[in-house]
């Protein structure tokens, strides 16, 4: 029986989603994690980064008995290119311009550590954007919202207006495939 879930993240969206598991939870910011990703090995790299985030929390808390640590890392992939959080408004514009009228994939690597095991997986969701004009993109960037999101948009905010269609887990696009996390834990015998 898990008595607490510790989220290795400072993302407010992930904090909101982890509560859906119905177990007391808290979030701790992971530190000293190598978040280098290679397009040639993105699935394995995302698993590694997610587990490293979880391990960085394990070092901080020490005792993991009756606790589960969850780490995650989300990226947007467009035609083989990784679109991370934009470094500046120009990069945000470039990201959104690429995604306009096109299909992209959102990948989230999840790493989970408990007292009995550690494991990881990657969830992938396909997203189709409507065609965006330059003025719409600029107005969205002016809100500041795109600056802390992979691919420069949030599906849970004004960015939802850009989404024409999704195939897969909506919450994965928010940054935490909570249904898959629940399923993976339940399938391994964890009780909530």
UniProtKB/TrEMBL annotation:
The keyword Cytoplasm applies. The active site is at residue 73. InterPro entries: ITPase-like_fam (IPR029001), Maf-like (IPR003697). Its EC number is 3.6.1.9. One of its GO terms (molecular function) is UTP diphosphatase activity. It is found in: Cytoplasm. Transmembrane segments: none annotated. Its cofactor is a divalent metal cation. Its main location: cytoplasm. GO terms for biological process: nucleotide metabolic process. Keywords: Cytoplasm, Hydrolase, Nucleotide metabolism. It comes from the Bacteria. The record marks 13, 74, 156 as: Important for substrate specificity. One of its GO terms (cellular component) is cytoplasm. It catalyses: dTTP + H2O = dTMP + diphosphate + H(+); UTP + H2O = UMP + diphosphate + H(+). Belongs to the Maf family. YhdE subfamily. PANTHER family: BIFUNCTIONAL DTTP/UTP PYROPHOSPHATASE/METHYLTRANSFERASE PROTEIN-RELATED, BIFUNCTIONAL DTTP_UTP PYROPHOSPHATASE_METHYLTRANSFERASE PROTEIN-RELATED. Nucleoside triphosphate pyrophosphatase that hydrolyzes dTTP and UTP. May have a dual role in cell division arrest and in preventing the incorporation of modified nucleotides into cellular nucleic acids. This is dTTP/UTP pyrophosphatase. It comes from Kosmotoga arenicorallina S304.
């Amino acid at each position: 029986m898990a008595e607490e879930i510790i989220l290795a993240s400072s993302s407010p969206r992930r904090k909101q989603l982890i509560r859906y598991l119905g177990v007391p939870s808290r979030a701790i910011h992971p530190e000293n994690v190598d978040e280098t990703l290679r397009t040639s090995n993105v699935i394995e790299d995302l698993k590694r980064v997610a587990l490293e985030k979880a391990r960085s929390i394990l070092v901080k808390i020490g005792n993991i008995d009756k606790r589960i640590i969850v780490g995650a890392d989300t990226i947007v992939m467009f035609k083989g290119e990784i679109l991370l959080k934009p470094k500046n408004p120009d990069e945000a514009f470039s990201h959104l311009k690429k995604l306009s009228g096109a299909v992209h994939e959102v990948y989230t690597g999840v790493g989970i550590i408990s007292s009995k095991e550690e494991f990881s997986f990657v969830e992938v969701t396909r997203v189709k954007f409507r065609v965006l004009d330059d003025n719409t993109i600029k107005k969205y960037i002016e809100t500041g919202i795109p600056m802390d999101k992979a691919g420069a948009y949030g599906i849970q905010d004004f960015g939802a207006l850009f989404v024409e269609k999704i195939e897969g887990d909506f919450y994965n696009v928010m940054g935490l495939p909570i249904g898959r996390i629940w399923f993976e834990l339940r399938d391994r015998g964890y009780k909530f």
